[in-house]
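Lecture 7 notes: from sequence to structure.

We start with a single chain of 132 residues. Read the sequence below before looking at the structure.
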Amino acid sequence: MSPRPASRNFHLALTILIGSVWVFHGLFSKLADGIPRHRQIVERILGESVAGTATTAIGVMEILLGLWAYSRYRRKSCAFVQTSAIISMNFLELLLARDLLISAPGMVVLNLAFLTLVWIWALGSPKTGVSR
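Now the structure, written as tokens:
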């Protein structure tokens, strides 16, 4: 039986969404300093002397994570890395830079929703986007 087009389209939309979130934040928020608050958070956590280099490195890693999501290669591993990255970043931000966050509870809720979509994407069938 052939996969339903709606399921394939949903899975493709998730792939594009997930990859785009990472590429946007890596490229615009970090590398282009389009959201200076991101660099300020890195400064607070790692120190001003390494913040520029660290923010660039984080941005490159986020872009690579987005490209990995676009590739759909080893989606469960990709989802695990995304989950680890978001939990680590959120933990450090809440612990050391809470005053720089727009909304700490909002960040947590938004990232939980994002990770829910990431795991739906990761556990879905490669052909249909439907969980096995």
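The helical segments are 5-31, 36-46, 48-71, 75-96, 104-123. Keep this in mind for problem set 3.
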